[in-house]
Amino acid sequence: MSATLITNIKQLVNVRQHSNLLRGSELATLPCIDNAYLLIEDDTIAGYGPMNELSTLNSRLPTAIDAKGAFILPAWCDSHTHTVFAASREEEFVYKIKGMSYAGIAAKGGGILNSARKLNDASEDTLFTQAWQRLEELSKLGTGAIEIKSGYGLTVEGELKMLRVIKKLKEHSSLSIKATFLGAHTYPQEYKNNHQGYIDSIINDMLPVIAREELADYIDVFCEEGFFSPGETETICRAGMAVGLKPKIHANQLNLSGGTQVGVKLGAVSVDHLETMDEAAVKTLANADTIGTLLPTAAFFLRMPMQPARALIDAGCAIALASDFNPGSSPSGNMNLVVAMSCIQMKMLPEEAINAATLNGAYAMELGQELGSITVGKKANLIITKPIPSLAYLPYAFGSNLIDKVMIKGAWI
Ligand code: NIG
Ligand code: FE
Known about the structure:
The protein has 413 residues and is an alpha/beta fold. The protein folds into two domains: 3-75 and 373-412, Urease, subunit C, domain 1, CATH 2.30.40; 77-363, Metal-dependent hydrolases (TIM Barrel). It is 35% helix and 21% strand. The protein has helices at residues 90-97, 102-107, 112-121, 124-140, 156-172, 195-212, 230-242, 259-266, 279-286, 296-301, 309-314, 335-346, 350-357, 359-363, 393-396, and strands at 3-13, 32-41, 44-50, 64-66, 71-74, 76-78, 143-149, 176-184, 218-221, 246-251, 270-273, 291-294, 319-321, 382-385, 403-408, 411-412. Helix 6 (195-212) links the parallel strand 8 and strand 9 (218-221). Helix 5 (156-172) packs parallel to helix 6. Fe (iii) ion is lined by residues 80, 82, 250, 324, 326.
């Protein structure tokens, strides 16, 4: 067994004896220990406490690493990304600067269809190598667990290729990875006038192979005007649920799509985006176990109004934060920026944002018993900060890289 002892931690953040999903006002409580130590055995958190209790532990402790006043947090749990893609789309970014809309670009064959053409041309090896490099970058930025979606294939071969890449990432990466099948991301060109034909292909051609090869944990649908209706979303999700995939739905991004309601009705793990919410949608979510996952960098990049985090929290919703990392609407997977933007633009308290990006993010990947807090028995996924004056300094000094080191499953990266 290998053991690591970290001493003189200025503040050990999000320490919980037991953890549960946080909703509403619970998000504002972030339990911390000042001047703390942390003991890690192999890949697991084995103990912690205030420094003055360390001397009473038995003498067979490993040589200590002095944190020299750094803060230690659980690594970020990014529960919504599209990290596997073949190419960036900065040309569309410039079109948008010149005045075109996201929907307008999509209608002209840009957007998701642009990414799908490129993905279908790329080899599995190329996609793997590119995604691997992205994961390396993200882990240095403090991400320790990540959900990754398909949805840029939109053909049987393309979707399976993406999911096989994600499966290979799962097998080789030390990050905890969850895979989501998003065949229903948009209608491919050849099914433009035959929506039912594409839905049939998802259900009859893709899902059976995905189930047989165990290629996905979740099923997702882009429930949006001009994309998939609530009825179509339900049909596709139920087909996924029949082979063991729980829903995590793209909901209420551009319009009041009904995605939140259909997600809650299906018992979805999460409904994600939520830029466009009315009182009914907020109330539905507040009364549900389904997590509302907010993606502020997507709203920022698309110049949309931010998600109504305050209204959601005040109504008692369980909120997670994620990056939506993808080439079209959030070309950054930097969770530090997500946390900062949540505080700056959505008026989340630093405590709320950190809880939503760690513990609740873990729950949004059904990893809440394994990750997301400093809890004995959970995996040692940690962010060690550079010297900072306080925890609120993290989102305050947005854009500065304040991470000194990251530990994933007990190993420094
Ligand atoms: O989550 N909204 C749908 N899907 C992605 C964007 C996809 C793209 O533009 O490539 C999102 O924002
Ligand atoms: Fe997304």
